[in-house]
Design brief:
mainly alpha, 3 domains, 0% strand, 70% helix
């Protein structure tokens, strides 16, 4: 049996937002999306229109941002570092941030901050992914036979051909580490 959604009130929206932020880091855009899904479920059950509650959602988000619970720049920088550590390329990071509602300028600033910390962020991420998935020089055996598959795996991860080739065709893992 489906749970009956709560009626939308400013206090309900604020509590729902705080509960979400206790569990997940979020951008303003993502939190707006989450709260509007709650509004959509409530409107479908209780009636009314989506626009009736959109201003309430915006007010809650503005209040939480003013209180310091939402900071898109800090979220974007933290998420960028995390995704880079996981072996994600700059293109993938930019797309992930856009999907989470981070505007282009904030995402660009976070990527610039990463570029200041790491000289070649895409190459470093590709090396990390190759190590994790045992591609190219990190492969124990059959490296020549698996060259095309290894290149394809890195390309699917969003890296350009030159970066893929530099990683897969490296003489050894030690050469890449330098």
């Amino acid at each position: 049996m489906a749970k009956v959604p709560s009626k939308i009130t400013p206090s309900y929206l604020e509590n729902a937002a705080l509960h979400y932020l206790e569990r997940f880091a979020s951008s303003r855009g993502n939190l707006h999306h989450v709260l509007m899904r709650k509004v959509d479920r409530a409107v479908a059950h209780w009636g009314g229109t989506r626009e009736d509650h959109a201003e309430q959602v915006d007010a809650v988000i503005a209040k939480l941002a003013r209180l310091g619970y939402l900071d898109d720049a800090a979220y974007a920088e933290a998420r960028t570092r995390t995704l880079h550590r996981q072996g994600k390329g700059l293109r993938t990071i930019r797309a992930t941030l856009a999907a989470k509602g981070v505007d282009g300028g904030t995402a660009a600033a976070a990527l610039d901050a990463l570029a200041e910390e790491v000289t070649e962020p895409d190459l470093a991420a590709a090396i990390r992914l190759a190590r994790k998935r045992r591609l190219g020089p990190f492969r124990a055996q059959g490296r020549a036979e698996m060259r095309q598959k290894d290149l394809a795996a890195l390309a699917r991860a969003g890296f350009d051909f030159d970066t893929c080739r530099r990683v897969i065709e490296a003489d050894s893992a030690e050469v890449l580490e330098e």
